[in-house]
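Re: the request from the purification team.
They wanted to know what the chain is likely to look like in 3D before they choose a buffer screen. I agreed to run a prediction and write the result into the notebook, where they can find it.
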Amino acid sequence: MVSEAVALHGFTAATVMTPEAGTAFGPVAAVPALTGTVTAAECLFVSVLRLSGADADEPAPPAVRVTVRRSAAGHRLVVHRPGGDRREAVIRAGAVAVTAGDS
């Protein structure tokens, strides 16, 4: 089993944690962890997480690119996926609106 965490926005460090007693999946585990620092009343942290039942030798999926802009409406997040597809979200206190963007 492979787990992966990729920091895309706001995080300052990545590490791997190794629980002393393992997990429900086995006696030895490596768990990805991301950390960041809250620097204002509102902070945005964005990551991509993947959990796969395949071997560790399986190639990683194609990378995504993220752009984030702060506006009066909230944080505008655009995820650009391989092949030109993209999704947009406006994130503000108490609400998230997601739309399919133009390619």
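For the purification team: The mean pLDDT is 83.
Please add any questions underneath this entry.
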